[in-house]
Amino acid sequence: MDRNLYVNELIDPISKTWNMAKLQDLIAPEDIPRILGLHPSFSFSRDSYIWAHTKSGNYSVRSGYWAAKASPRGDCDLPFQGPRTDKTCPRCGMYDETIKQVLLECPPTYQRAKELGVMEEAIRDFPWILWFILKAQNSKVFGNSEVHPADTLQLACKEADFFRIARAKESIIDSEPPLIDPGSRSTVSDLLTCQVDGSWTGEGTLCGIGWILISDSQLINLGLKCFRQCLSPLHTEFEALLCEMRLLTSLSIFNVAFETDCKELTQLLDTPDEWPAFASELEDYNALKLGFSRFFLDFIPRLNNVRADCLAKKARARDSIFPHVSSSTPDWFSSVVNRMFLA
């Protein structure tokens, strides 16, 4: 085996998918399914690091505690403390102690600061000052970039002012009816709705996706697909969206409102920088999105997505890799299930 082999040499440069022949030749059989669950980058973007103990790929103190607790500790006989399990604030007794609660909402903390002679303005801006000091420290440690203390203080106070202004605006009740956004769903006449869903289990080697295409509540098309297991349920939900985006653009359908019952997927797409574990998927998503004239993605309750959910589960239960795209369900569906799509 070539010791200087790179990962991209295991990826087919034409299809941008894993080269099964090379994987079977070089990789232990038990590791191949996990590799196949990874989504290769279509543009061969730069590699990066992720933290494997969180869903997003970002490090958190909590996950660090539990990773340390689970790791071998040698001969050390000191007890592992771990994070506190009691979430009650020891100062005011409020449940669910958080940073926001401690710095902004805990009366004893505020009172103690006043007793120490801290000025009212400093108490009011303290959370932001603390936060910007931390940001300046991180810039120095990780980016070798120095921020002058006066600039840090000025930025913190300005951010605190912005926060208070925003809070004040939220408290004002606007009596005027909301204006319709010219780019909103209601203004697009030929907009189709595509509901998507994924099905994943930790024990299986395959996962399933399902989707339906609707126009004015009428079913136009549907699809289901079974393929190799993704790394997680969220990866499967994302893959379901990407598959339908590729398919619809190939069918020259460019005005689509996608709907998903996966709240985490919409959060991921709203804050992509916070999810480094999905860098390759996000890259494909952004590239595919450019192909649509009108593109929307909305969260819907699971009860409103039962047909796509049914298709995804049926695809996974089939236990063989296949795609199906048609205006009707496969002939192996039961009559009871078929009635769901004919209704």
UniProtKB/TrEMBL annotation:
It holds the Pfam family RVT_3. One of its GO terms (molecular function) is nucleic acid binding. Residues 196-315 form the RNase H type-1 domain. PANTHER family: BNAC02G40300D PROTEIN, POLYNUCLEOTIDYL TRANSFERASE, RIBONUCLEASE H-LIKE SUPERFAMILY PROTEIN. This is Ribonuclease H-like superfamily. It comes from Arabidopsis suecica (Swedish thale-cress).
